[in-house]
Amino acid sequence: MLNTLWLSFFWLAALAALWRWLVQGDAAVFAALVDSLFSMAKVSVELMVLLFGTLTLWLGFLAIAERAGLIDLLAKLLAPLFKRLMPEVPPGHPALGLITLNFAANGLGLDNAATPIGLRAMKELQTLNPKPDTASNAQILFLVLNSSSLTLLPVSIFMYRLQQGAEDPALVFLPILLATSASTLAGLLAVSLVQRLKLWDPVVMAYLGGGALLLGSFMAFLAGLSVTALNELSSLLGNATLFGLILLFVTVGALRKVPVYETFVEGAKQGFNVARDLLPYLIAMLCAIGVLRASGVLDGLLSGIRYLVDLAGLDNRFVDALPTALMKPFSGSGARAMLIETMQAHGVDSFPALLAATVQGSTETTFYVLAVYFGAVGIQRARHAVGCALVADLAGVLAAIAVCYAFFA
């Protein structure tokens, strides 16, 4: 799947470039394609340098948590649920606790913390994989749920809106929460259908029902807060949780006689090896995305969608937010740039800007996650991971459109 997808990006870019040269007379398009290759290779290295520090930091703290038994404890608590969702993962396996930490970090919008935890979880799942070059069912489920972007506190979106002068930066909080919940549910259902998981099992229903109850209660509590209180809570809860996890790891480790400093250093040493192994996969994927963007394929797709919407006589205001939606599966920084551009072009509180912010907060950089997580363990055959992850992305975008029309139209 990855081979076909990667090759198709280059061929689509080539065909679009030929059209622009032969039909539109744009001879500079090939220079743009070559420039995008080198610029994206540079971006890949810059991303890896930034990721290197984060990986080193968090792998060090995770080593302390593992030695202290915290990851084993989380794994035991979730064993009944994952026994049914990931039957090939033994109860109490360290991967289960790491998966839980990864979901918690994503939910709080702590992207920098979530990535190294997720990479460690993927490596633990790889130890159970009978075919190292092919994604297992458990790895696919984990990746799809990870890429579905369940975000309870989209602090970064609030920050972008505040920077652009929004009077109420948290105005999109509830729309994002609803859209991201739809994205995660769609991803889970897609994987369950392909892998024939029994979601109606009483244990699974108990866990999912309990989670839905907690989420609903949390939403009801937040809905009663003022804008100022909501912003303060978002920032406080996200940062306090991040530092609280670090404090928990080192404190429990010290109480259990773990040499915390030495353990941190040993765990942090793994960061270099992980970063080194990720670089080729990042360069491969980001360069392919770069030529696709430089060729004008994404712009042409957007124009075609606008034409079809106008032809059907529908409200086309959502089309102005689609650049963010189209870019997000490929590039987080590109989607962020599209979001800010939409805010500046239409106004930070315009319908397209509000919808773009909701899409940004409820979808994930699927191909980046795919390249990083599978690349870290050398997986080349993704099987149904890409399809299921894109189903989750599509559900997130459609839910964002529906919710924003309900809230803001």
In short:
With 409 residues, the chain is mainly α.
Secondary-structure element string: HHHHHHHHHHHHHHHHHH
Which word captures the global form? globular
Mean pLDDT: 80
Tell me the Rg in angstroms. 22 Å
Head-to-tail CA distance between termini? 39 Å
The number of helical segments is 18
Give the total of beta strands.
Answer: 0
Estimated share of beta-strand residues: under 5%
Which structural class best describes the helix and strand composition?
A: mainly alpha
Helix content estimate? over 70%
Main beta sheet, described? none
Unreliable sequence segments: none
Describe this structure in words.
This protein is an all-alpha fold. Helix content is 78%, strand content 0%. It has 18 helices and no strands. It has helices spanning 2-22, 29-68, 70-85, 94-107, 111-126, 137-147, 155-163, 173-195, 202-223, 227-255, 260-268, 270-294, 297-311, 322-327, 332-346, 351-362, 366-375, 385-408. Helix 6 (137-147) runs antiparallel to helix 17 and helix 8 runs antiparallel to helix 18 (385-408). The protein is globular and about 70 Å long. The chain starts with a helix and ends with a helix. The model has no long low-confidence stretch (mean pLDDT 80).
Helix and strand topology:
Elements: H1 2-22, H2 29-68, H3 70-85, H4 94-107, H5 111-126, H6 137-147, H7 155-163, H8 173-195, H9 202-223, H10 227-255, H11 260-268, H12 270-294, H13 297-311, H14 322-327, H15 332-346, H16 351-362, H17 366-375, H18 385-408
Features:
409 residues, globular, 0% strand, mainly alpha, single chain
